[in-house]
Fold HTH cro/C1-type domain-containing protein.
Amino acid sequence: MKTAKSNIMTLEQFKDKHYGKRGTARRDDLEAGYESFRIGALIHEARLEKGLTQQELAEKVGTTKSYISKLENNVKEVRLSTLQKIVELGLGGQLELSIKL
């Protein structure tokens, strides 16, 4: 019996094929964009888990609802100091960072 060739590839294979290997400019841009998107998604998820509106979170942090919305929707990048305020003051959490080499 003949088996069909699978056209399924992993996400890593897809990125290699369409954006180049890690270390190329196009791939680095893709990865950086994903990290910004991910931070916004994490803020959004944590805010909902805490039962806060964007306005309530903004007031706790000392910023605007518009700014929180832009972060959550990947329209604006967050500064590290602001992210720390959002996590600690706004959400009552703890920010943990790591560097992978």
